[in-house]
Design a protein that fits this description.
The chain has about 100 residues and is mainly α. It is about 55% helix and about 0% strand.
């Protein structure tokens, strides 16, 4: 699912479709932050390991705004994402 969402975000960015990107980012936030990064690493409720999260972040990082890329290196950095808006702001508005 994460791979599909990253691909959809890439398409939205290529097409400069910020409304679609925001829809995809809501899903990514739920999957990456709410369901995984905010939970304890050994929580049985997690659906992704830290290794999986790092893999997804490596693919998301090139899609982030230039000034936000360093915030998408480690899963622990996602834990510091306070809310959905701060996550979306890592990507949109798209840089020109």
């Amino acid at each position: 699912m994460a791979v599909r969402l990253v691909a959809e975000l890439g398409r939205a960015k290529d097409q400069k479709d910020e409304p679609q990107a925001k829809v995809v980012l809501v899903e990514l936030y739920d999957l990456l932050v709410s369901s995984n990064a905010k939970l304890d690493p050994v929580s049985p409720e997690r659906t992704m390991s830290d290794a999986d999260l790092k893999w997804v972040l490596a693919r998301l990082r090139p899609l982030a705004r230039q000034d936000s890329k360093e915030k998408l290196v480690l899963p622990s950095q996602l834990k510091n994402t306070n809310d959905l808006k701060s996550f979306v702001d890592l990507f949109v508005p798209f840089s020109s």
